[in-house]
Design brief:
CATH class of the largest domain: Alpha Beta
Distance between the termini: 52 Å
Strand order of the largest sheet: 3-2-1-4-6-5
Number of helices: 14
CATH topology of the largest domain: Rossmann fold
Number of domains: 3
Oligomer: single chain
Shape: elongated
Strand content: 15-25%
Amino acid sequence: MKPTLSAKLLHALAPWRNAPAWHIAFSGGLDSTVLLHLLANAEALPPLSAVHVHHGLQAAADTWPSHCQSICDRLGVPLRVMRVQVQPGASLERAARDARYRAFTQVIGAGEVLLTGQHRDDQAETLLFRLLRGAGVRGAAAMPVHRPLAGGHLVRPLLDVSRAELVAYADEHQLKWIEDPSNADMQFSRNYLRHRVIPTLTERWPQAVSSLARTAEHLGEAHALLGELACMDLQAADQPSRFPWLGLPSLDLGPLRELSDARQRNLLRHWLAQLTRLPDSDHWAGWYSLRDAKGDAQPLWRLADGALHRCGERIWWLPRAWSEFSHASVSWLDTQNPLELPGNGVLTIIGKAPEGPLAVRYRQGGEMLEVPGRGRRDLKRLLNERGVPGFVRGRLPLLYQGEQLLGVPNLTGLWAAPSEGWQLHWMPQSCDQGLS
């Protein structure tokens, strides 16, 4: 016996039955209306609420919040209406989606679930759309059933349900839903696929939609396997650096070199996915140039949200904001307390500080430092000896007493003699402090 739509839905949602709360992304359209009706009439579920995001992009949308409120009132489901501003850009669809998900992240609490109503036909459209844009396995996997969102989960429990099944359920229960006028606008690529391309395909291949959705599922499995392979390869490359205080993501280049080009790209896609928008296939030449540069070079590969730097046999991720700090000299009057450096973290003297007045400056070139047991040494040569990455040298806060350079932080031996009893430590502004 074929399972009912309610049974299919509850089976798909079984892994999240113990979540603190479920929130339905409720546009008022067919799919979210059916999803809301199904769950509002189910028993023993987590606390259920609905979220309607009002974009304000068209006059007709002004009546939708009241429509959604009336449905939620009838079903006894709390509704939250969130009004958002859509940022102008090349793609109105993408901008509206980004605004919508920014709103959702404000709703989802730790461990809670946001349910959206995308169905099998949506999955087929997404696959076609991405294939036509030249997507790789990750993109062609289309929409996953589940992914993390804020501190909780985004779940699409209807991906195995056709639009025809949703319409049949809505008609059976005499549900009313909103028809968005923009869904008929052929200037939007998805609408063109939905109204022109997919009907032509199904006329020739009646199972086209379910076959495309099944392909997306297979590609999702392939993407998951590639992720597992990347994690295995990453174990060898993700070794601690000699400068853990930098707080920047980095990898050992040696283990990467031992992999094939395809596995290198797979590992880097996996690693970079949390750091930046990924490059398309035409831009991977930058990786090969960085990887194959001479050992004494310091090449970089610029990406959307920062750059990958190579220093010796290590690669480092630098967010775009890394270079955004003040190079101005800072007087340090109260050495008993850490010194906040504008955009550059915190500097601390451990032990009895040298007599003042003290100041913090940044490299200009030609600095000399009195090194215990070695006499006066050129700072550039000292940093070369320690292998300090080039990108951090201009950011190192240097401690001065008048015109005398007293010390360089975090590099043992590049401050006072042990008999003077103080050390200089610097905690840079890290990715966790807003650089990512």
